[in-house]
Amino acid sequence: MKKKPYFTIIVDTSSMTLGDLYDRILSYPEDTMNFCIENVFSWRGSYDEPCCSLSTRNVSKDHNLNMLNKLLTESFVGWKGGSYTYIVDDTIHFEAGDGSYSDEYYINMMIAWYFATALAKQYDSVISVLENNKLDKWVHNKTIQKAVESYRVTDEHKEYLRSLRVK
């Protein structure tokens, strides 16, 4: 399945590196994140590439950074054997928390929550991303939905955000 571009900073999940993900989490504007890296391991599609399983449970930013640090500091054994270590330039893969493979949904949801939180915290510096349609349609609309559901976004901003929905 061909991957879609998500936004200009993370070009697409097929080229997102471990370092890219680490930087995104590090720059997340809050200490609590709306997704959790549940586990890290060798990707079953290619054992020499890192993988993490994601869930939507809230955890600290430090938890997610610590999980990524495991990928950079520990050795992992592939399902069929072999020992693998990873570096920041390795492409990262994602699986749902239950172990089923799902790049698109969890990455898109993570991006939507990231921007919805940024809208709540730094509205003026982030609104141009939506105004200039820099996000994939689903991520764009999910970002608006999550921001509108937030008690931290003003009613005035919510009304304007609703006008930015993509049909």
Structure overview:
- The protein has 167 residues and is of the alpha+beta class.
- It folds into 2 domains: 13-101, no CATH class; 103-167.
- The protein has helices at residues 18-26, 61-73, 103-131, 137-149, 155-163; strands at residues 32-33, 36-42, 50-55, 59-60, 76-77, 83-84, 93-96.
- The chain has a 3-stranded mixed β-sheet with strand order 2-3-7, with helices on one face. Strands 1-4 form a two-stranded antiparallel ribbon.
- A hairpin with a 5-residue loop joins strand 5 (76-77) and strand 6.
- 29% of the residues are buried.
SSE inventory with pairings:
Blueprint: H1 18-26, E1 32-33, E2 36-42, E3 50-55, E4 59-60, H2 61-73, E5 76-77, E6 83-84, E7 93-96, H3 103-131, H4 137-149, H5 155-163
Parallel strand pairs: 3-7
Antiparallel strand pairs: 1-4, 2-3, 5-6
Please give the number of β-strands: 7
Largest β sheet strand count, sense and barrel closure: 3 strands, mixed
**Coarse structural class:** alpha+beta
Spatial extent as radius of gyration: 17 Å
The 3D shape can be described as elongated
Q: Approximately what portion of the residues adopt beta-strand conformation?
A: 5-15%
What count of helical segments does DSSP give?
A: 5
Strand order of the largest sheet: 2-3-7
Compute the separation of the termini in Å: 24 Å
Helix content: 40-55%
Mean pLDDT across all residues, rounded? 81
Ranges where pLDDT stays below 50 over 5 or more residues in a row are: 1-13
Number of domains: 2
Short description:
The chain has 167 residues and is α+β, with helices and mostly antiparallel strands. The protein has helices at residues 18-26, 61-73, 103-131, 137-149, 155-163; strands at residues 32-33, 36-42, 50-55, 59-60, 76-77, 83-84, 93-96. 29% of the residues are buried.
